[in-house]
Design goal:
This protein is an alpha+beta fold. The chain has one domain: Aminopeptidase (3-Layer(aba) Sandwich), CATH 3.40.630.30. It is built from four helices and seven strands. The protein has a seven-stranded mixed sheet, with helices on both faces. The N and C termini lie far apart (about 30 Å). The structure holds coenzyme A. Coenzyme A binds near residues 83, 85, 93 and 94.
């Protein structure tokens, strides 16, 4: 497995990852290449977005963006917001864990105090994954569970 920062050539592959997850979960969400570019690759609030690849192509990606005023889930400013998207054929092979090592490093480098993960309450794999990465629930309601990871003060 190889991990590197996402760039413009990755938009079709990232869009394909989102489509495969939609096929697995049945939960529709934005997924086209224009969305992937604006939301992940060229987002001005992006701190870090990395992709994981193997010889057969893209395995998944993880994004870390800065929480801005008025963000969708009311995440405090100064925090990061993380999102993880792994192709179903690659689930449970450590891809999410490897991507998180890169995102955690980027979060510390950026001086973030905490990272938020906002997860559907009906998404047990997402909830278990973020728990395994050290996140803990700080707020829930309206079908969303918000987990946070506090970064060590000495790292800021
Ligand atoms: C959730 C997701 C990101 C996990 O990625 P992954 O690459 O499969 O995760 P890893 O293989 O690194 O798993 C790390 C740990 O997380 C936990 N975990 C991950 N998937 C799990 C599952 N389906 N059930 C239970 N625990 C799970 C386990 O503790 C696992 O360690 P283990 O395999 O040694 O027991 C991936 O399943 C995914 O992209 N799902 C669809 C989109 C999504 O739900 N995104 C996150 C919420 S927005």
């Amino acid at each position: 497995m190889h991990i590197r920062p996402a760039d413009d050539r990755d938009a079709p592959g990232m869009s394909g990852v989102l489509l495969d997850i939609i096929a697995l979960t049945g939960r529709m969400r934005p997924h086209d290449e224009a969305f992937v570019r604006s939301h992940y690759i060229t987002n001005p609030d992006s701190i870090w977005c990395s992709i994981a690849l193997d010889d057969d192509g893209m395995l998944g990606f993880q994004s870390l963006v800065r929480a801005t005023p008025g963000n969708r889930y009311g995440v405090p400013q100064g925090w990061g917001i993380i999102g993880t998207h792994i192709r179903p054929r690659a689930h449970r092979r450590g891809v999410g864990t490897a991507l998180f090592a890169a995102s955690h490093h980027a979060a510390v480098q950026a001086g973030l105090s905490s990272i938020d993960a906002s997860i559907g309450a009906d998404n047990p794999m997402g909830l278990r994954y973020y728990e395994a990465m050290g996140f803990r629930t700080y707020r829930e309601g309206d079908g969303i569970v918000q987990k946070m990871l506090t970064l060590p003060a000495q790292a800021r």
